[in-house]
């Protein structure tokens, strides 16, 4: 490089290429600009080294086919070459092949060469990052442009997002978190630069691998967040988008609680009809089985109890009833004071409802007798069962109830009220269905209001064979 002039006016003067361009090299000479005789901006002409056409062809072989911008500039600023993909970059820099690069961009290029750092060029709504690589032996600078619009959008977006967004590397380390993530990140005991808890990292990594947009729920600082992990393979990290779902989960819990309370009042099919907006619910059922149970002497017993003790005893006893109703696939109709009403065959459409009601009645005495309150107070029940047709429906609009009416109901109630403590009294219709399946003891004729004297039976303990069949 002997005889090479030094820097002039803050620019790097350089030797220039010979005009013997190889194939693929677009030189300024095609536009009337001969780089071999290009004056420096001080007015002098720089000498050019002898470069063969073969060497230039090797250097210039690929840029025309590169989908990214590639430019070549002399060290003193003359633009030698630009591939087709450089068009938007040239427009933004107001540069033309065959002319010197504008001063402000020449300064940026010179700084990029010295600092070995790329500089940015805004192009319409996008951004290019330009890497400047000096090739002093050949007297020029190669400029390589990369469209970084998407990358900058990925980086900028989370800062403006009102929802938590944080970024993980593939070691589970938080490399970035926007301001909205502060509570979430702190609540899971982590920080930027730290690794998240191993179980959470495993769950997030699994969801990313599934590639199905599945979320992971976490509790953090008394809030509930749904985390959606999204792989960003172009940049080697995972973006995690958080949504505060605390209110949604609270609403869901309230809905489940309301549903539980509703089903304590109504059979599920009836509750569903109400939810669908059905105004008047009234049905006739040709065949159901009804059970009434009443605690013997409870009025006198309760007079000596404190209110809290009275309610506690009833709650303990009727909890046993509820569990037996569920076990045998029956429906609780209602409680009236210390009385309990159950129906079978109302909503399930099966023919064995009388057997299931009898099974519940047979198990009732043993199950209640095991309660501490029963042993302490000597709680006993009278139970009555009848079967036949009924009418059922919902009455009321605010404090509504589901109730059952008809002669079958009245007779079932009389079976309980005329019964004997500790026994289950049934009608002839029930005895006929249970005959051969349960032990039944004839009681004889019983005077029933509105019916006169009718035959009744006592239901004995359920035999082991019947229990096995029912189970």
Unreliably modeled segments: 1-51, 462-471
Strand percentage: 25-35%
Oligomeric state of the chains present here: single chain
Mean pLDDT over the residues:
80
What is the CATH class name of the largest domain?
Alpha Beta
Which percent bin holds the helix content?
25-40%
User: In angstroms, what separates the terminal alpha carbons?
Assistant: 102 Å
Radius of gyration: 45 Å
CATH superfamily of the largest domain: Nucleotide cyclase, GGDEF domain
CATH topology of the largest domain: Alpha-Beta Plaits
The helix/strand class is alpha+beta
CATH architecture of the largest domain: 2-Layer Sandwich
Q: What can be said about the biggest beta sheet?
A: 8 strands, mixed
**With helices defined by DSSP (H or I, 4 residues minimum), what is the helix count?**
15
Count of individual domains: 3
């Amino acid at each position: 490089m002997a005889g090479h002039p030094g820097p002039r006016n803050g620019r790097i003067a350089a030797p220039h290429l010979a005009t013997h361009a190889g194939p693929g090299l677009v030189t300024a000479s095609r536009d009337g600009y001969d780089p071999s005789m290009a004056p420096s901006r001080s007015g002098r002409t720089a000498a050019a080294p002898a470069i063969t056409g073969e060497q230039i062809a090797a250097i210039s072989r690929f840029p025309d086919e590169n989908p990214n911008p590639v430019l070549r500039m002399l060290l003193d600023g003359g633009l030698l070459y630009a591939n087709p993909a450089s068009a938007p970059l040239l427009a933004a820099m107001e540069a033309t092949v065959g002319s010197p690069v504008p001063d402000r961009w020449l300064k940026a290029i010179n700084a990029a060469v010295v600092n070995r750092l790329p500089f940015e060029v805004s192009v319409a709504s996008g951004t290019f990052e330009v890497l400047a690589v000096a090739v002093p032996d050949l007297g020029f600078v190669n400029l390589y442009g990369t469209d970084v619009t998407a990358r900058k959008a990925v980086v900028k977006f989370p800062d403006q997002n009102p929802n938590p967004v944080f970024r993980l590397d593939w070691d589970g380390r938080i490399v970035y978190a926007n301001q909205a993530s502060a509570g979430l990140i702190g609540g899971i005991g982590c920080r930027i630069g730290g690794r998240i808890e191993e179980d959470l990292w495993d769950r997030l990594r699994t969801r990313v691998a599934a590639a199905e947009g599945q979320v992971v729920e976490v509790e953090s600082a008394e809030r509930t967040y749904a985390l959606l992990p999204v792989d960003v393979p172009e940049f080697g990290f995972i973006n995690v988008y958080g949504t505060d779902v605390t209110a949604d989960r609270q609403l869901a819990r309230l809905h489940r609680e309301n549903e539980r309370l509703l089903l304590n009042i109504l059979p599920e099919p009836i509750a569903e009809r109400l939810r669908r907006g059905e105004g008047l619910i009234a049905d006739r059922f040709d065949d159901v089985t009804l059970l009434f149970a009443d605690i013997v002497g409870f009025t006198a017993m309760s007079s000596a109890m404190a209110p809290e003790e009275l309610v506690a005893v009833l709650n303990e006893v009727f909890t046993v009833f509820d569990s037996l109703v569920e076990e045998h696939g029956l429906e609780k109709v209602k409680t009236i004071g210390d009385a309990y009403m159950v129906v079978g065959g109302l909503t399930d459409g099966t023919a064995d409802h009388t057997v299931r009601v009898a099974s519940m009645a047979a198990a009732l005495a043993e199950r209640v007798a095991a309660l501490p309150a029963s042993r302490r107070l000597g709680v006993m029940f009278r139970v009555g069962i009848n079967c036949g047709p009924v009418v059922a429906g919902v009455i009321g609009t605010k404090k509504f109830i589901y109730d059952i009416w008809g002669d079958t109901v009245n007779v079932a109630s009389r079976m309980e009220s005329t019964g004997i403590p500790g026994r289950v009294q049934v009608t002839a219709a029930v005895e006929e269905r249970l005959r051969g399946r349960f032990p039944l003891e004839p009681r004889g004729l019983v005077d029933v209001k509105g019916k006169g004297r009718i035959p009744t039976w006592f239901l004995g303990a359920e035999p082991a064979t019947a229990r096995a069949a029912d189970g």
